[in-house]
Write a structure and sequence with these properties.
Elements: E1 4-10, E2 24-29, E3 32-36, H1 42-48, E4 58-60, H2 72-81, E5 88-93, H3 97-104, E6 115-120, E7 124-125, E8 134-139, E9 147-152, E10 156-159, H4 161-166, H5 172-180, E11 182-184, E12 190-192, E13 197-200, E14 204-208, H6 215-221, E15 226-230, H7 238-244, H8 249-259, E16 263-267, H9 278-286, E17 292-295, E18 301-303
Parallel strand pairs: 3-4, 4-5, 5-6, 14-15, 15-16, 16-17
Antiparallel strand pairs: 1-2, 1-18, 2-3, 7-8, 8-9, 9-14, 10-13, 11-12
Helix pairs in contact: 6-8, 8-9
EC number: 3.1.26.11
Active site: 67
Binding site for Zn(2+) 2: 67-68, 210, 268
C-alpha cells in the first residue's frame, strides 16, 4: 500500500532551539522520498523518525542559507557510506553553484556517483523529473537566490463500476480502456474512457520557504492539497519580516487563501518565540485562511490530505 506523508524533521529558522531543530522535511510519496532543506542535525532527526539514507530519492534545496543546507554534506556522505544504489538528484538554485560545490565536497570521504546535481534557474519544471511526479521550481523573494517547489501527481481518471458494466467493459478490457482511452466491446461497440470514468485531479504539495509575499509563492501553492510554508514571525515583528524577506503567520495564511490551498502547515519559526506563543501562529494565519492550519512540530508526521475535486486548476 502506498504511503504519502510529510515527516517534519526540524521547524526552527536561523537558530535551533531545545525543542526545534534546524529545518528538515521528508516527503514520502509512494516510491519517492524527497528531502527538503536539510539543516544541521538532519541525520539524527531522520534516525529518530525511523528514516534511512536509502529512503531518499531526491533532495530539494530552496537556497543556501545555512539553516537550509548545512546538513547536506552529512546527508550526502551518509548516502555514500550506506551505499545507496539508486540515483539521488539534488535540485538547488543554479546561482549558488559555488556553495553546492563546497557542500558537496566539504570533507574527505569515500565518494559516490549516485548523487546527481540538478541546478534550477529561470522558471518551470526541474530538468529531470519522474513520469508520476512533476516537480516545478519558481523563484521567490529573499535576500539570496531562492526557489520554492511544487510536486504534482498527473491528473487521472476514476473508473465507475456501474458505467463499466452498463457499457459491457469487463476484465482485461478495463485496463486497456485506462491506458488506450477507448476499447471495442465484445459486440463491436466503441467505448470511450470518459463514458466509464470521471476525471481525478492529481495530488499536489507545495514547499515555500524564505520569501516575502510574492505572486510566485501563490502560484506554487495554487490548489495545493498540502502547503508547507515559512511563518517566521508574528504580527508584532512584521517589520522584521519585511526587512529580512520573510513571512509572518498572517501573510502565510493570506498566500494560502489566495492560492486556494487545502491544508496549511506553518514552520520555520524564529527562536525568539516560546512555546506558550505557539497558538498565536495558528490564530493569525486563520484570520486570513479558513482551511485547516497546522503548526509543525519536530518529528511530527502529517498525512497528505485527500484530493479535493473542487480545487481543479492546474499550473501550466
Amino acid at each position: 500500500m502506498s504511503v504519502r506523508e510529510l515527516v517534519v524533521l526540524g521547524t526552527s529558522s536561523a537558530v535551533p532551539t531545545r525543542r526545534r531543530n534546524h529545518n528538515g522535511y521528508f516527503l514520502r510519496w509512494d516510491t519517492h522520498g524527497v528531502l527538503f532543506d536539510p539543516g544541521e542535525g538532519t541525520q539524527r532527526q531522520m534516525s529518530l523518525a525511523g528514516l534511512a539514507a536509502t529512503d531518499i530519492t531526491r533532495v530539494c534545496i530552496t537556497h543556501f542559507h545555512g539553516d537550509h543546507c548545512l546538513g547536506l554534506p552529512g546527508t550526502i556522505q551518509r548516502i555514500a557510506r550506506d551505499r545507496v544504489p539508486h540515483t539521488v538528484r539534488v535540485a538547488y538554485p543554479a546561482q549558488g553553484q559555488r556553495y553546492w560545490q563546497r557542500l558537496r565536497h566539504a570533507t574527505a570521504f569515500h565518494d559516490t556517483d549516485v548523487v546527481v546535481a540538478q541546478p534550477v534557474d529561470g522558471t518551470g519544471s526541474c530538468p529531470v523529473g519522474e513520469p508520476d511526479l512533476r516537480i516545478t521550481a519558481l523563484p521567490l523573494r529573499h535576500s539570496t537566490p531562492t526557489y520554492g517547489y511544487r510536486l504534482a501527481e498527473p491528473d487521472g481518471w476514476r473508473m465507475l463500476p456501474e458505467r463499466l458494466a452498463a457499457h459491457g467493459v469487463h476484465g482485461p478490457m478495463i485496463r486497456r480502456l485506462q491506458h488506450q482511452g477507448a476499447v471495442t466491446t465484445d459486440d463491436g461497440r466503441r467505448v470511450e474512457l470518459a463514458q466509464c470514468a470521471r476525471p481525478r485531479r492529481g495530488q499536489v504539495m507545495a514547499f515555500v520557504m524564505d520569501t516575502a509575499e510574492c505572486d510566485q509563492a501563490v502560484e506554487l501553492a495554487r490548489d495545493a492539497d498540502l502547503l508547507v510554508i515559512e511563518s517566521t514571525y508574528l504580527d508584532t515583528e512584521e517589520h522584521l519580516a519585511r526587512s529580512y524577506g520573510h513571512l509572518t503567520a498572517r501573510q502565510a495564511g493570506r498566500i494560502a487563501a489566495r492560492a486556494g490551498a487545502g491544508t496549511l502547515v506553518l514552520t520555520h519559526l524564529s527562536e525568539r518565540y516560546e512555546q506558550e506563543e505557539d497558538p498565536r501562529f495558528v490564530t493569525q494565519a486563520a484570520a486570513e485562511f479558513d482551511g485547516h492550519v497546522v503548526l509543525a512540530q519536530d518529528l511530527q508526521r502529517i498525512p497528505l490530505p485527500p484530493r479535493n475535486p473542487d480545487r481543479a486548476t492546474r499550473m501550466g
